[in-house]
Amino acid sequence: MQLAGPSRCDHRLRRLRRRRLPAANAGLTLGEVIREAAADADFIAAAQTTLDRATPEGGIWKLLAAAKLANLLAVSKLIDAKIADAREDLNPLLAQIAVVDGAADDLLVQGKNLI
């Protein structure tokens, strides 16, 4: 069965896509595409901004943003937390390396003085 024409949903989506955000957002439109060469952190920040902006908009924007971005942002936060934990575990080892590196430098200076 084929539909006779565009549905009311199609018209609403087109209207929402053309809608401008408030002036505080410098004229950016909802759903603006981030540049391809952006850093990973920029993509995550853009996803968070999109979710934050879509929530007050409500309706289809909120539903689509929550469906597409909420899981991505949750996984991103989980990965960031694991990286932070790994860095905390790494800090004592880096301190030990710095001590041994300083001792090695001292030995090199002593050896140079003997020559």
Structure description:
This protein has a domain at 8-83. It is 74% helix and 0% strand. It is built from three helices and no strands. The protein has helices at residues 8-18, 40-57, 59-114.
Based on DSSP secondary structure assignment, what is the total number of beta strands?
Answer: 0
Shape: elongated
Provide the low-confidence segments as ranges. Answer: 20-28
Cα separation of the termini: 93 Å
How much helix is in the residues? over 70%
The SSE string, one letter per element, is HHH
Structural class: mainly alpha
Nearest-integer average pLDDT: 77
Q: Indicate the radius of gyration in whole angstroms.
A: 26 Å
State the major sheet: none
User: Hey, roughly how much beta strand do the residues contain?
Assistant: under 5%
Number of helices: 3
Write a concise synopsis of the structure shown:
The protein has 115 residues and is an all-alpha fold. It has helices at residues 8-18, 40-57, 59-114. It is built from 3 helices and no strands.
Q: Which key terms come to mind for this protein?
A:
mainly alpha, 3 helices, 74% helix
Question: Layout of SSEs?
Answer:
Layout: H1 8-18, H2 40-57, H3 59-114
